[in-house]
Structure formats: structure tokens, C-alpha cells
Write a structure and sequence with these properties.
About 50% of the residues lie in helices and about 20% in strands. β22 and β23 form a beta hairpin. The protein is of the alpha+beta class and about 950 residues long.
């Protein structure tokens, strides 16, 4: 401070301030060879020269990097385009396999196959797919007749089908199927000798390989101009008998079965590969190498050159090739970025900008070094003013942040406190020195000795004083203060001064405690949450492994809690959960961890260390039974009683190689076994449970694959009237597993319902039912067809729209399709179910109640719903001749149905006595093994004789 106290400070003072620094030494050296007044300009000139040298160097580096990026983009474009083309060509293998397997497929089979493998969805650039059959002269008439009879797509078949162009040839290669079909294409002979592409087909047959055309305009585009925007590539591949290529060209010509082919539009395919990055960076030209130089390119963008060699000076250029079947495409790419653009890159701009800035700063600094007394004096005054302002700002900041500072000079034993320190402690430094006990009396009694010892240790050991303590103010407020300090030593290593700060952290510690509580506590019940439980469980597992002891984990789930929540509201549900938590805490031993991990799920971790797993199991079972017993008493909420049980699963820990997730899973599995076996039970986990779950999971995966691959099939069981005449059939799903075993419907239908696979499966069954009705109608047989509709399928939002669209599309005769639904469907959301049934009834759908009498039979829905028939469960039919009550129930159902005008179907008729009993009591329709067993649907259709209306 004394340095700036005097007046009339000259440049030598500034020199002394800079003495010893590199800047001052440089300044002194420069002043020897350059006049003082020219130093700023000379410094600026040298700095600018260095800046531009570095700028040129960075531009060259950017050019090298740009060339690498250009080559990477060109090679990426080459790879992506080659992969796209190969993906299209690879579809020919699928078409070949279909052509070999399907001998003369119908139009419908071809379309279904194309739709099934989703070619046009996976490859949107695919514009044409065709199959051409090889037909000998002797087979021509039979081939034409078969094609004309194919009415699988067109109702009247193809009466005009013929092979053209006309002319006698020893063999023909006839385009039989085209997707999408183009007028004038089906029936065209590719062996037409007048066409140039005959040579390409002969080349494909002779070599047995895939052959591609050059860019051409397809027949469907022939009205368009011939340019790169509408040219296409046609790729063909021969199909030999049994999909085996003969060894010689002559054998290949004789054993040719068909030719499959595709076409894709070149511009669209290439544009899909052109990413915005490539399009912005490259000028690309793609051309067929076999085409003449004057021919139009397949594709070009922006400023792409017409010839590969015509490259502007200073641009990067690269020419690559890709294989397209037997042809080669040339890719010529030019770099769109001009050489001057590299000067605009960030690094050169930064170098030039920073260098220019540094040059200006050096110029200003040199000018500052040669400025005389006035500038130095102004700088000193400004510095002193800034120090005073910073001191004031520091005091204000300490007051805002509740930070006080102190200094204890040990040489003079003088203690000084800042104003904020006085405010925090409610006393001055002098008052503290006069009687330190006054401060300790303001602290909580249990903290006084700790603070005394910390201060004494800091003094004796010369260590920084760091501690937190609480302090009572006069108004009763309790503060938390944090003390931090450091020592200063003299040249002999003796402590000279201790200085530090005291900060109020009351609010901070409260917030930290609240954050910790929220992070590890369930807000609703006050129990530990999932995160707290996982931390605790992981710690217990590690300790148990070290001590070789065992603990129990109980997973508890409330029974019927969802019904309480849905019917009484979440407020009642929350009260019930709090009461459950309190009951569990009352019966669980002190020290055990009780946690709520979500919803109505609670977990209990026993802390009593057991020497063996068996003893831990006994302890956990006793606790579980005590917990379950507390649920015997109903929960009284707002004066209303609510009953609930608890399904509990138990797992023992630790097990070899298991973490908390596996232990959770085991207890959860055991809990679900408790629910499955009747609820309100206690189940201990066994290995067989996990095996059962894995078996079910494997069956679920197999079922999903079977649905995707259409491995399930339909059988039909004929229904007969009371005179023994066929009058309809029920379609039933069957599944033969890939292993050869038959999976029964009672195993895979519930699984499909649970996983949601029943929705696509049900849609497929519905469409097959529609097609069955149509087939029966063609045969002159007007029997009804019944299919089962699951509740999950019925409740799909678009179910009614889907049924209406399918009936209209297939033109299904109304009133011939019967939906069989269970009584369980009718009791959930009755109003919505009734509205949906009336909408479907208006479309011509009839409804049958399946397994009538076994569920929630109600005369109300018999009266209000648009029902067509009732289906008596087989259990009543089997017992009707044995038990008088069951016989009375059957007669009652028949009587009610007669009064309401409903038909009755009896299923499970297996004896003649049962048939006679039902016929005598007026049962309309019967179904069972006595009359007919289920047979594969197509066999059942083939066995149906034509009948008059």
C-alpha cells in the first residue's frame, strides 16, 4: 500500500513493478534496437504476420481433413447404394423359393405371398414384381385354360387370357403374375424374338445367374419422357426345376421352370441413399457403365459433371463402381466445397480472429508501457477505489450469505470478529474473550464438550478448525453454524495467525434432511421406499455372506385392493394402505425393515440372523402368519367395513450368486403362487416355481412365433338339428407345436388372452370364418358358422369397425356368422357391451352365449341383448341323465329359450341317450363326439355336399 501512497509517481515506479517479469525484460530489450514511439506499431506488424502464417497452415490442415471427409462420404454413398440394390436383388431368392414350392399358384396365392413377406413395405422403391412360367408348345392350351379358370382374385376369372404376341414357337416364357398388375402385361411372352431383351433372358438362362437391364422406361411409364427421373432397372433370375441349377447351358434351357423378376425406379432408390450431408457436400453422377457416353445418367444432383473426367480445378473428384447383377454402375463424385470456403472454417477464423485480437492487445499493452505519469496515477487511484469497493461488497456478501469472518493473532493474542460474526453469535469478540463460557451456555448441552475439544485440538495441534455446532438465540431460535479456518506460520514454522469463517447453514441442513427423507421414504405410509429397501437389502446380503447367517424376505400383496380403489376411490384406498402399514409395523419384530415398494405391495426384511436357511424360513413363516392374521379384522374407513386378505411370498437369503433383484423375483414368484392357489396364503419359494415360470415364458414365445408364422390352424365340428341333419359348424383353434406335440386350447388360449396375442389371432379366425361362409354359399350350403370371440378382442376400440369393413370387403352373406361369447363378457361394463352388440347385430352378426348356466346367468341380459342362441355347457349334458337337478336345469334353459325365441345348442353330446333326452325336450341343435368329431377345416369343406336353399 505504501507503494501507491506518494504523489508524482513516474515510469521508473512502473518499471520496478514489472521488474523480473518476462514482459519487462522483453520491453527493455526492444527499446535498445527500436525507437520507443515505434514499438507498438512494430509489435502489431509482427503479430499480424505470425497470425496469417498460422492461418495459412490451418487452412491446409482443413483441406486435408475436407478431402478425407469427401472420400468417406463417397465411399459411404457407394456402400449404402450397393446395399440398397442388393436388398432388392435378394428378393429374387424368395420369389424363386415360392415359384419352386408353388406349382402353378393362383393369383390369390401370389398376392398373399407378396403381402405376407411385405416386400413392398420393406422395399418401397420396388415398382414391379413378376413371375413368368416356361410353357412348352404341347402345354400351351392347358396352361391358357388353367389361367382363365383362376378366379381367386377376379370373380369371373380371366376369360380373355392368352399368350401374346401370336405365333408358333416351340416354347414360351409367359408372364403369369404381375404385382401390381399392369394392363396388357399378363400373358406376355418374354421369348418374343422381336425384342432385344430376349438376349438378356437367354443370358440369364444360359448362365443361371441374375441379369439386369440398363436404364429403361417401363410400359406403365411409356407416356412419360425418357429421362433419369422415370427410368427403371429390371432384374431377372431363372428358376430351375427343384431349384437345382443344371451343370450345362443346354440342360439349363431344358430344365427351366420359370423366370422371376423385379423392377425398381433408379432415381427414387438413389435419392433414398442421398442423405442431406452427402447432398450438401457432393455432386454425384451415377451411370450405367455399359451405356454409351451420350446416354442419360441414372442419377445426378446439383452441379454433377456430365463426364467423369470433367472436374473443375481445385475440386476433389472420385470415381467408384458397384455391381448390379451382371452390370456395373459408375459413381462419379465431385466435392462441392470450393477451396476458398476453407478460409471460412472455425479454426482459421478463430486463429485469425484471435491473432488479430492479440496483436491489438499487444499494441495496446506496448502503448501502456510507454505511457507516462498521468496514466500510472489514474491506474493507482482506480486500484485503490476498487479495493475499497471490493471490501464493501465482501461485507455485504457476508451479510447476505450469513457468513462471518474472524482472525486470531497469536503474537498479540488479539481476536477480531466481523460485523456478521457479531450478529451470528450475539456478542462481540471482546465479550467472548472476557467470558467464553457465555458462548458455550448458548449451545445444546450435548455439544459443548465436543466444541471445547475441537477448539483445544486446533490450538494444541495447529490443525485447521472445522466443525459444526448449534446455537440458541435469545428468541429461542436454534441455528446451525459451520466453522472453517486455516493457520498462517512465520518463517520459523511457528503459528502466527488463525483465520476463518462462520456460516449459518440451518436451512441447508434442514433441506438436506428433507431431501434424504423424500428420497428414502414412502410419502403415503412413512415406511421406507423401494430405494431405501434395495440399499438395506444389498447391505444385509453382504453382511450375511460374511457372517454365514440367513434372513427372510417377505413379499406381501393385498387381495382385492384394486376393487376397493376402483369402487370407493383413491382417497379410501390411501387410508387403507396407511392402516395396513400400521398393522404390519405392530406385529413385525423391532429392527425388521418394513417397506412399501409401490401400489399395494409391501416387503418385510427380517433382521434376526438365523444360523441355517431352515431356521430363517421358520422365523419368516411365523412373521408372515402374524401379518396375515391381522387382516382377519376388517378395515373400518369412514364408518364402512372393508375386507382384504394378504397373499405373501417368502424367499430366504443369501443364496449363491444371487443379488437383491433375484431375491425380489423369488419372493414375488412365491407371492403370485399364493394368489393363484386361492389368495390370502403364505407360500415359500421353491425352485420348481421358477421352472414353471420359465416353461410358461418359453410357451409364450413359441405361441407368439406360431401366430406370426400362421402355424395355428382351424378345425370344424359339425352341428346337427334334432332330426340328425347337419345345420352348421363351430370353428375351433388347434396348435401343433414345432416339437410335434399338440398343445391343448385350454393351455394356449388363456396364454394368448393374457399376452394380447388373442387380438391378431381372433382377427385371423374371424376372417377365416367369413371365408368359410362364402365357400359354403358357393356350394349352395347355407349352414351357419360359429366362432369364439374373446373378451379382450371384443373390447378393442376398433373391433366393430374392423368387423364391418371385413364383412363389406368379402361380401359375406348376413345372418350366417355367429359370435360365441362367454357370460363373463356381459357383466363388465354392461351398457358399453350392449351398445357394441347392437352395432354388430345391425351388421348381420348373431350372438350365442357359450357355456350358458356356468357363470353369471341373468334373465335381464336374455331380455335386453340381441341374442340368437344359448349354448348349454357340456357339464349339464353329461349330468342330465344322472342327476335330477341337472336335468331340471337343462329343461329350464330349453323352456326359457323357447319363450324368448332363442335357439339352444347342446355341446358335448357323446351318447345316444343324451341325444334322445335332448331331442325329446326340443333342443334345436346338438354338437358332440357322438355326432361328429372336429376335422381340419378344408377337409370339412370338401366333405360338404351341395345342397339346395
Amino acid at each position: 500500500m505504501t507503494l501507491f501512497a506518494g504523489a508524482g509517481i513516474e515510469v521508473p515506479v512502473l518499471r520496478r513493478a514489472f521488474s523480473g517479469t518476462w514482459l519487462m525484460k522483453l520491453y527493455q530489450f526492444v527499446t535498445i534496437i527500436i525507437p520507443r514511439h515505434r514499438i507498438p506499431s512494430a509489435t502489431f506488424l509482427v503479430a499480424m504476420i505470425i497470425t496469417f502464417v498460422l492461418g495459412f497452415w490451418s487452412v491446409e490442415i482443413e483441406k486435408v481433413a475436407g478431402h478425407r471427409e469427401f472420400r468417406r462420404l463417397v465411399e459411404k454413398f457407394q456402400v449404402d447404394l450397393s446395399n440398397q440394390i442388393q436388398a432388392h436383388i435378394d428378393t429374387l431368392s424368395t420369389l424363386k423359393a415360392f415359384a419352386v414350392i408353388e406349382d402353378h399358384p393362383t393369383d390369390a396365392r401370389v398376392k398373399k405371398f407378396i403381402s405376407a413377406i411385405s416386400l413392398q413395405q420393406r422395399l418401397p422403391n420396388l415398382t414391379l414384381i413378376f413371375i413368368a412360367d416356361r410353357v412348352s408348345l404341347s402345354e400351351r392350351e392347358q396352361y391358357i385354360a388353367r389361367a382363365r379358370r383362376d378366379d381367386s382374385v377376379l370373380a369371373g376369372g380371366r376369360p380373355q387370357f392368352s399368350i401374346f404376341p401370336a405365333g408358333e414357337r416351340s416354347e414360351f416364357l409367359v408372364i403369369r403374375h404381375v404385382v401390381p398388375e399392369i394392363s396388357g402385361t399378363v400373358g406376355y411372352d418374354l421369348y418374343d424374338p422381336t425384342k432385344l431383351y430376349r438376349q438378356e433372358i437367354d443370358l440369364a438362362v444360359a448362365t443361371g445367374k441374375t441379369v439386369s437391364t440398363g436404364p429403361i422406361v417401363l410400359a406403365r411409364d411409356r407416356m412419360a419422357t425418357r429421362d433419369a427421373d422415370n427410368t427403371s432397372i429390371v432384374v431377372r433370375e431363372p428358376v430351375f426345376e427343384n431349384n437345382v441349377m443344371p451343370p450345362t447351358a443346354q440342360d439349363r434351357a431344358q430344365r427351366l421352370q420359370a423366370v422371376v423378376g423385379i423392377a425398381f425406379q433408379t432415381k427414387r432408390l438413389i435419392e433414398n441413399v442421398m442423405t442431406p450431408e452427402i447432398n450438401a457436400h457432393l455432386s454425384v453422377r451415377v451411370a450405367d457403365s455399359a451405356s454409351s457416353k451420350s446416354a442419360l445418367p441414372l442419377f445426378q444432383n446439383g452441379q454433377a459433371e456430365q463426364q467423369a473426367g470433367e472436374v473443375q480445378t481445385g475440386h476433389d473428384a472420385l470415381t467408384l463402381q458397384i455391381a448390379v447383377a451382371n452390370r456395373r454402375w459408375l459413381i462419379t463424385a465431385n466435392d462441392r466445397i470450393p477451396a476458398t470456403a476453407y478460409w471460412a472454417r472455425p479454426i482459421p477464423i478463430i486463429i485469425i480472429g484471435a491473432g488479430s485480437t492479440i496483436a491489438v492487445l499487444l499494441w495496446l499493452l506496448m502503448r501502456a508501457l510507454v505511457t507516462r505519469t498521468r496514466i500510472a496515477e489514474d491506474a493507482v487511484k482506480a486500484a485503490l477505489l476498487q479495493v475499497r469497493n471490493e471490501q464493501t461488497a465482501l461485507e455485504e456478501a457476508q451479510a447476505i450469505a450469513s457468513i462471518g469472518s474472524f482472525e486470531w493473532r497469536m503474537e498479540t493474542n488479539q481476536l477480531s470478529w466481523s460485523a456478521q460474526m457479531v450478529q451470528l453469535y450475539g456478542m462481540s469478540a471482546e465479550a467472548f474473550c472476557a467470558d467464553p463460557e457465555v458462548l458455550y451456555e448458548q449451545m445444546p448441552a450435548n455439544e459443548r464438550s465436543v466444541v471445547r475439544q475441537a477448539i483445544r485440538s486446533a490450538i494444541d495441534d495447529h490443525v485447521p478448525l472445522e466443525l459444526e455446532h448449534r446455537l440458541h438465540r435469545a428468541n429461542g431460535e436454534l441455528l446451525t453454524l459451520q466453522i472453517r479456518s486455516k493457520w498462517q506460520f512465520d518463517t520459523n514454522g511457528r503459528p502466527r495467525m488463525l483465520s476463518g469463517t462462520a456460516q449459518e447453514v440451518t436451512a441447508l441442513r434442514k433441506n438436506e434432511a428433507e431431501i434424504s427423507r423424500l428420497a428414502f421414504t414412502d410419502v403415503l405410509t412413512g415406511l421406507p421406499n423401494r430405494r431405501h429397501l434395495i440399499d438395506r437389502l444389498s447391505q444385509v446380503i453382504d453382511e450375511a455372506r460374511q457372517d454365514r447367517v440367513f434372513h427372510g424376505l417377505l413379499f406381501l400383496d393385498l387381495d382385492n385392493f384394486k376393487m376397493v380403489n376402483d369402487t370407493k376411490g383413491h382417497a379410501v384406498g390411501d387410508k387403507m394402505l396407511r392402516m395396513v402399514a400400521e398393522r404390519i409395523r405392530r406385529v413385525v419384530p423391532i429392527g425388521d425393515t418394513v417397506a412399501r415398494i409401490g401400489g399395494d405391495e409391501f416387503v418385510i426384511l427380517t433382521m434376526a440372523a438365523a444360523p441355517t436357511g431352515e431356521s430363517a424360513m421358520v422365523t419368516a413363516s411365523l412373521i408372515a402368519e402374524r401379518v396375515r392374521a391381522t387382516f382377519a379384522e376388517p378395515f373400518i374407513i369412514d364408518g364402512i367395513q372393508h375386507a382384504s386378505g394378504a397373499s405373501i411370498g417368502i424367499s430366504i437369503l443369501p443364496q449363491e450368486g444371487q443379488g437383491y433383484a433375484e431375491i425380489f423375483r423369488e419372493a414375488d414368484t412365491a407371492m403370485y403362487r399364493s394368489k393363484a392357489t386361492g389368495r390370502n396364503r403364505v407360500t415359500i419359494f421353491e425352485k420348481s416355481m421358477q421352472t414353471e415360470i420359465e416353461r410358461k415364458s418359453a410357451l409364450e414365445l413359441d405361441l407368439a412365433a406360431a401366430v406370426r408364422n400362421h402355424d395355428l390352424y382351424l378345425v370344424a365340428q359339425t352341428q346337427f338339428d334334432l332330426h340328425g341333419r347337419p345345420c352348421g359348424a363351430e370353428l375351433l383353434l388347434r396348435w401343433t407345436h414345432a416339437s410335434g406335440h399338440h398343445i391343448t386350447p385350454d393351455r394356449f388360449i388363456p396364454l394368448a388372452e393374457e399376452t394380447g396375442l388373442i387380438v391378431p389371432l381372433g382377427a385371423w379366425v374371424f376372417e377365416q370364418g367369413c371365408r368359410t361362409v362364402i365357400e359354403l354359399n358357393v356350394r349352395g350350403c347355407h349352414d351357419t358358422v360359429s366362432i369364439n370371440v374373446s373378451p379382450r378382442q371384443f373390447r378393442q376400440p376398433d373391433f366393430v369397425a374392423h368387423v364391418g369393413e371385413t364383412l363389406a370387403r368379402l361380401e359375406v352373406p348376413p345372418g350366417r356368422l355367429i359370435f360365441e361369447v362367454t357370460e363373463g363378457l356381459l357383466i363388465e361394463d354392461v351398457a358399453e357391451t350392449a351398445n357394441r352388440m347392437h352395432e354388430l347385430s345391425a351388421l348381420g352378426i348373431r350372438f350365442s352365449i357359450d357355456d350358458f348356466g356356468t357363470g353369471y346367468s341373468s334373465l335381464a341380459y336374455l331380455r335386453d341383448l340381441p341374442l340368437y342362441e344359448l349354448k348349454i355347457d357340456r357339464a349339464f349334458i353329461h349330468a342330465a341323465l344322472i342327476k335330477a337337478n341337472d336335468a331340471a336345469i337343462v329343461r329350464l334353459i330349453l323352456g326359457i329359450a323357447a319363450q324368448l325365441g332363442l335357439k339352444v345348442v347342446a355341446e358335448g353330446v357323446e351318447t345316444q341317450a343324451q341325444f334322445d333326452f335332448l331331442a325329446q325336450n326340443g333342443c334345436d341343435v346338438m354338437q358332440g363326439f357322438l355326432l361328429a368329431r372336429p376335422v381340419v377345416l378344408q377337409e370339412w369343406l370338401d366333405a360338404r355336399p351341395p345342397r339346395a336353399v
